Amino acid sequence: MINPFDDTYFMKKALQEAELAFEKGEIPVGVIIVVEDRIIARTHNLTELLNDVTAHAEMQAITSAANFLGGKYLINCTLYVTLEPCQMCAGALYWSQISKIVYGASDEQRGFETMGTKLHPKTKVVKGVMAKEASALIKRFFIEKRNLN
């Protein structure tokens, strides 16, 4: 039997969160955290709303998932994020011991891979899932932002 809950299915959910961020004037990054094909956290960037540089989507999702699970470790969980995590978020994901990270668009300037940030040795990374759609949303956001200023 084919499992409809694949990486593309969940990345589409993360992109919906990124669209919500876009509508709020936040950099459009969305995150979903899944355990056993069940979404346990969904959020997007909130740095502008909360006036907090640490309110990245991944940070919000880690807290939400940990609260749901009743513990600080996200073992057997998968994080779907529309943009490659920065080194701050990668550091938090390291400490959470998340099992898998799936991201869409690469961040060649500030992404954890460019910055050389290490993840937990047991964390599996899948990159490029719906990268074209995620990248297009971010590009559209910054084009519109520049045109408003």
Note down, in words, how this protein is organized:
The chain has 149 residues and is of the alpha/beta class. Helices cover 44% and strands 20% of the residues. The protein has six helices and five strands. It has helices spanning 7-23, 47-50, 57-69, 87-96, 112-115, 131-148; strands at 30-35, 38-44, 77-83, 100-105, 124-127. Strands 2-1-3-4-5 form a five-stranded mixed beta sheet. β4, α5 (112-115) and β5 (124-127) form a beta-alpha-beta unit. α1 packs parallel to α6. The termini are far apart.
Summarize the structure.
This protein has 149 residues and is an alpha/beta fold. The chain is 44% helix and 20% strand. Strands 2-1-3-4-5 form a five-stranded mixed β-sheet.
Give short descriptive properties of this protein.
149 residues; alpha/beta; 5-stranded mixed beta sheet; 5 strands; 44% helix
Largest sheet data: 5 strands, mixed
- Tell me the span between the first and last alpha carbons: 52 Å
**H/E series:** HEEHHEHEHEH
Strand content: 15-25%
* Number of contiguous helices: 6
> How do the strands line up in the largest sheet?
2-1-3-4-5
DSSP, total strands: 5
* Average pLDDT level: 95
Low-confidence stretches: none
Over all CA atoms, what is the radius of gyration?
Answer: 14 Å
Oligomer: single chain
Counting helices, strands and paired strands, the structural category is alpha/beta
**Global morphology:** globular
In helices, the fraction of residues equals 40-55%
